[in-house]
Design brief:
glycogen biosynthesis, six-stranded antiparallel sheet, 12 helices, 731 residues, 1,4-alpha-glucan branching enzyme GlgB, EC 2.4.1.18
Length: 731
């Protein structure tokens, strides 16, 4: 091999020192091939190497400059490198011979903070660049002095693969040849004060290691092979306020476990969970957050990798296959999405580039006292863009049908869960968080605008106006809002001994005073069966059978009440104990020799309620309109009974719902809008549900006896602790 022509002054001493110490802010200006006059000079930094060659057609040995630096004149930039040291030799492609990947438009949009599809330019992408395969890395760290990609491929040495700064964008990028899918990596960042920070995971990484390891992993998200065109072309109608929407909320890690207490994979869930939910008549699965998170006990609500489906169940491709399987079974997928806060884990977003970059510097704005987490700085354009782009990412890349936004109330108000002097007012001196409001409006506008047919849902517990009104009408732009008030009131009522319910009768009717102010979903979610609250069954008063009867009556009330439905896993078969995220639901209860029939009956009731709800327009088309509801009896506190009408379009069969919340059989007359036969479409006291089989077998006949403001009426039997649905016969 020839010796490259050498000489003095290959590299300035100050630059050499900065490279060796990992302080150099622009290593691409020094390392790699550079034209200097008529010469092409190659500089290489390879700690541990004793000799280095440029593998050109006529390999040239570079001059050793000391401390791992080598230099020499080469005939062209078409070369590989070879090194010897410590008795070993190795070849590699030089990252410093490759030009930038990001284009001018990307740079412009990144600098402006308006790149809708941030994930297409940031993160780690397996690509071919200038004729060579490898991975392109790009990360936003505007205040860093130096950013490097580190991993096993470079001995986790931040001096070896420093990145190129892209002007005023604050973005750093590099192309590392030879790296592909499965590469484990992090970013080593030197902050503005020169301090090297804890290694950071990629904010836009598509994969992660298994906890407790927390490095990012290069994952391909291209090459999707979807089989859900039928669903995607018609899903818009499934998300309108006229559609039947019944959601099964699921924590993937504990819905069911495999032998050995192993979590199910996305592949297994694509069969077992999808088949089960479809068989139960639900229209949608809502998944507790699947964005990568370090701590199992957070259930996903403290995510670090917002762009990475958690590796707990498999790869991005396998998660995509779960969504595809659900769609092919006619099930929509809603994801819980967490833009309200992020954890303080050192590998996460906190002080990402040595400054309060994603969060507020002032803890009165940037720290959640309740959860010991950090709050996004929604007023920073790039942060707002990061979150909006993340929402779009899930909808576009994974065909997600909807996002349920967690803890919206904590975002809307600057004084949320804060005392006097613990919060910073807005520019007008008020408590509303204008910046968070703007982010949510933008997210909804972009999501609905870019992905026709999707739906967004707010978990919002205050009376903030217009949550589910369009943004251009002054609302937040969500499709639906969880009805937390209804949930709290009705659960407080149903948890009381029936003898005291007459004193709290209107806890069950109060929700109708505001039922049309938003597009509501009635939620019995995971939050109602944790933190000492017990299971839904355990919350019911009475002995064993009465507990089941109470719960059946409550579910009947819920499915007959205006509003879309949501039920957390396990509640559908009356899980007896409180939910535990670290183990399977108690599926064995369905086979219990004692109470098994009651649990199976509850499960069948939910299936039948879903079937009736979906098949009966009167029970869903006017869920969000007052013309679909009319009280028949709202004031029978002494008897603890309720009765109302549900109405669909003119000419469609109407439904009367009557509920008895005492353990005493009631015989009463209810008004009906039309004469003739009314079929008992469902009775929660039926024997098949574990009840006493009392009721109105064969239905009732409405007579021309005015009652409850109706021209007709009928006497009906209301079994103890029951809900009865009577459907008008139309021939």
């Amino acid at each position: 091999m020839a010796k490259a022509r050498g000489g003095d002054g290959w590299i300035a001493a100050t630059e050499a020192t900065a490279l060796v110490e990992g302080r150099h802010g622009d290593p691409f200006a020094v390392l790699g091939p550079h034209h200097e006059g008529k010469r092409l000079v190659l500089r290489v930094f390879q700690p541990g190497a004793e000799r280095v060659w440029a593998l050109t057609p006529d390999p040239l040995e570079l001059q050793a400059l000391g401390q791992g630096l080598f230099a020499g004149e080469v005939p062209s930039a078409d070369y590989r490198l070879r090194a010897e040291g410590g008795g070993a030799s190795w070849d590699w492609d030089d990252p410093f011979r490759f030009g930038p990947v990001l284009g001018e438009m990307d740079e412009y949009l990144l600098g402006e903070g308006t790149h809708k599809r941030l994930w297409q330019v940031l993160g780690a992408h397996v690509i071919d660049h200038e004729g060579t395969g490898g991975t392109h890395f790009a990360v936003w760290a505007p205040n860093a002095e130096r950013v490097s990609v580190v991993g096993d491929f470079n001995l986790w040495d931040g001096r070896r693969y420093p990145m190129r700064r892209r002007g005023a964008t604050g973005v750093w990028e590099t192309f590392i040849p030879g790296l592909g899918e499965g590469t484990v990596y992090k970013y080593e960042i030197r902050g503005p004060d020169g301090q090297v920070l804890p290694l950071k995971a990629d904010p836009v990484g598509f994969g992660s290691e298994h906890a407790p390891q927390n490095a990012s992993v290069v994952r391909r998200i291209d090459g999707a092979d979807w089989g859900d065109a039928g669903w995607m072309n018609h899903r818009k109608g499934r998300h309108s306020i006229d559609a039947p929407i019944s959601v099964y909320e699921v924590h993937l890690g504990s819905w069911r476990r495999a032998p050995g207490n192993r979590m199910l994979s996305y592949t297994e869930l694509a069969e077992q969970l999808v088949d089960y939910a479809a068989d139960m008549g639900f229209t949608h699965l809502e998944l507790l957050p699947v964005s990568e998170y370090p701590f199992d006990g957070s259930w996903g609500y403290q995510p670090v990798g917002l762009f990475a489906p958690t590796i707990r169940h498999g790869t991005p491709a396998e998660f995509r296959a779960l969504v595809d399987a659900a769609h092919r079974k006619g099930l929509g997928i809603i994801l819980d999405w967490v833009p309200g806060h992020f954890p303080t884990d050192p590998h996460g977003l906190g002080r990402f580039d040595g400054t309060a970059l994603y969060e507020h510097a002032d803890p009165r704005e940037g720290f959640h006292q309740d959860w010991n987490t950090l709050i996004y700085n929604y007023g920073r354009t790039e942060v707002q863009n990061f979150l909006v782009s993340n929402a779009l990412y899930w909808l576009e890349e994974y065909h997600i049908d909807g996002l349920r936004v967690d803890a919206v109330a904590s975002m809307l108000y600057r004084d949320y869960s804060r005392g006097e002097g613990q919060w910073v007012p807005n520019k007008d001196g008020g408590r509303e968080n204008y910046e968070a409001i703007a982010m949510l409006r933008r997210m909804n506008t972009v999501a609905y605008g870019e992905c026709p047919g999707i739906v967004t849902v707010a978990e919002e517990s205050t009376a903030f106006p217009g949550v589910s009104r369009p943004a251009d009408w002054g609302g937040l732009g969500f499709g639906f809002k969880w009805n937390m008030g209804w949930m709290n009131d009705t659960l407080a009522y149903i948890g009381r001994d029936p003898v005291y319910r007459k004193f709290h009768h209107h806890q069950m009717t109060f929700g109708l005073h505001y039922a049309w102010s938003e597009n509501y979903i009635l939620p019995i979610s995971h939050d109602e069966v944790v933190h000492g609250k017990g299971s839904m069954l355990a919350r019911m008063p009475g002995d064993g059978e009465q507990k089941f009867a109470n719960l059946r009556a409550y579910y009947g009330f819920m499915w007959g009440h205006p509003g879309k439905k949501l039920l957390f896993m396990g509640c559908e078969f009356a899980q007896a104990r409180e939910w535990n995220y670290s183990q399977s639901l108690d599926w064995h209860l369905l086979d219990d020799p004692g109470e098994g029939p009651q649990h199976r009956g509850m499960q069948r009731l939910i299936r039948d309620l879903n079937t009736l709800y979906r098949a009966t327009p009167a029970l869903h088309v006017n869920d969000c309109r007052p013309e679909g509801f009319q009280w028949l009896e709202a004031n029978d506190a002494e008897g603890s009974t309720y009765a109302w009408l549900r109405k669909g379009a003119p000419g469609e069969a109407q439904v009367a719902v009557a509920v008895n919340m005492t353990p005493v059989e009631r015989r009463l007359r209810i008004g009906l809008p039309a004469g003739g036969a009314w079929t008992e479409a469902l009775n929660t006291d039926a024997e098949i549900y574990g009840g006493g089989n009392l009721g109105n077998m064969g239905g009732v006949t409405a007579e021309a006896v005015p009652h409850h403001g109706q021209a007709h009426s009928a006497e009906i039997t209301l079994p103890p602790l029951s809900a009865v649905f009577l459907r008008q016969d139309i021939h």
